[in-house]
Amino acid sequence: MSALIDHLQQNYSGNVWVVGGTQLQNTLIEQNLINQLDVFIMPVLLGSGIPLFPRFNTTERQLKSLQAEMIENKIIKQSYVF
């Protein structure tokens, strides 16, 4: 994981949009490498599943809501900043 982070820091100076699962997002959040988080909610009721944010190795973080947007009356996109 650190090789990916090193590569991004060395080769990109602007914003990078990262799509990934909980292991990737948690690593980036724990290392303070994410300043905005977009959460896409697709309302389907499941009996179980993978948590969006499993346990962190850092302290609690406060998020500030930027906006919420409905996409095709099916998906809710919520944007937050740290």
Automatic annotation (TrEMBL):
GO terms for molecular function: 5-amino-6-(5-phosphoribosylamino)uracil reductase activity. Gene3D superfamilies: Dihydrofolate Reductase, subunit A. GO terms for biological process: riboflavin biosynthetic process. Residues 3-76 form the Bacterial bifunctional deaminase-reductase C-terminal domain. Pfam families: RibD_C. SUPFAM superfamilies: Dihydrofolate reductase-like. This is Bacterial bifunctional deaminase-reductase C-terminal domain-containing protein. It comes from Acinetobacter bereziniae LMG 1003 = CIP 70.12.
